[in-house]
Amino acid sequence: MQKEQKNKDTLASRLAVYTAVAGAAMLTAPAAEAAVVYIDVDPDVSVGANGNYNVDLNNDGIIDVVLNQSNSTSTNTSTSYTNSTTYTNIYTYNLWNGVNAIGQNGADLVGTGSSSNRLASGASIGPSATSWNTSQLLRGIYYSTSSYGSWDDDQPHSLGVRFSIGGQTHYGWVRLTVNSDASGFTVHDFAYENTPNRAIQAGDMVGNSQPTDITLSANSVEENLSIGTVVGTLSAVDVDAGDSHTFTLVAGTGDSGNASFAIAPDNVTLVTDAVLDFEIQDSYSVRVQADDGNGNLFEKALTIDVTNDISRITRSGGGGGCSIIRENHDGSLGSKILDMLVFFLPLTIFGIRIKRFGGKPPDPSASE
């Protein structure tokens, strides 16, 4: 049976008959060209005692998830006597109320047993999830006193689903509200990611977009600085405001300078991985990849310029002054003249402006 078929029928035509008590509701989702296939359950469907709700995420006629409410009661009989008259009293009370989710036909659900299966909007459901289970207890009440499960606030939350289409893994979610007393639940909507092995965010109705650009807060670094010197902070341009991006250096066009740089442990800061020398190479190209955490990647080559260290203080001079010897002194007349200018002009060191006086200026006739 073909999994990805187009279906332009109205939602109503895709809803099967739902029976509230010991019945089943079937919702089917049509395939779509968009990355995320979304179905709004309108109106919402409420399920009561011992009712089932079947979800077929991708409209292939195969149930992926069964949601059900289980209810059991206990009867207690007591006898009393009044004036030689016997009275029999029968008390019936709930022994157990439970709301469960059960994966069908190989489908799994995020979480471990009765924990970690209530997902907030925006939570990632995908390959990075480490806990999956075939069945999940969403909420359970035993003897009206002991409670189990995290769906305890009468608010809508998402259940993460992993299922197969044609042998390939897909991820989706079902949003529902579970009664805190476990007496029933209400289904609101559901969706799945049409691209295999690609994560989906809980509550995502339109799909998560790929980053469109990578920027660097600074694109130059001074030569001769130690390994680990910060070049700048990387950031990604992404229409999905909630995405958190990490960056890596990758092979490809524009990666010739990758060996001289690295990404810091925070995954967003570009640092040097070599002592750079302006005289050897004054510009580098690195190829950076941005990952939005939802299976979307973007790569871009960035240029890093190395700035020339024009002068360095190498020794103190007499009279409170200092002698300046430029790193790039080549012995030429122009270089000697520049030495004189460097000596007499004010110098800024680490943002502090210093006026030079006294001391012995460089000898123009001397060579380095």
How would you characterize the overall build of this protein?
- The protein has 368 residues and is mainly beta.
- The protein folds into 3 domains: 12-201, no CATH class; 213-307, Cadherins (Immunoglobulin-like); 312-354, no CATH class.
- 3% of the residues lie in helices and 46% in strands.
- It has 1 helix and 26 strands.
- It has one helix at residues 333-344, and strands at 26-28, 36-47, 52-56, 65-82, 85-103, 108-110, 124-125, 132-133, 135-142, 146-148, 156-165, 168-178, 185-193, 200-201, 213-216, 220-222, 230-237, 246-249, 261-263, 269-272, 283-291, 297-307, 312-316, 322-325, 347-349, 352-354.
- The strands form 7 sheets. It has a 6-stranded mixed beta sheet with strand order 1-3-4-5-9-10, with no helix packed on it. A 6-stranded antiparallel beta sheet has the order 2-13-12-11-6-8, with no helix packed on it.
- It is elongated.
Shape from CA axes? Answer: elongated
Mean pLDDT: 79
Strand content: over 45%
Kindly provide the radius of gyration, computed on alpha-carbon positions and rounded to a whole number of angstroms: 35 Å
The total beta strand count reads 26
Count of individual helical segments? 1
Question: What number of domains?
Answer: 3
Strand order of the largest sheet: 1-3-4-5-9-10
Which structural class do the helices and strands define? mainly beta
Order of helices and strands: EEEEEEEEEEEEEEEEEEEEEEEEHEE
* Fraction of residues in H or I helices: under 10%
The N- and C-terminal alpha carbons lie at a distance of 83 Å
| pLDDT < 50 stretches | 1-34, 313-321, 352-361
Biggest sheet layout:
6 strands, mixed
Assembly type of the chains comes to single chain
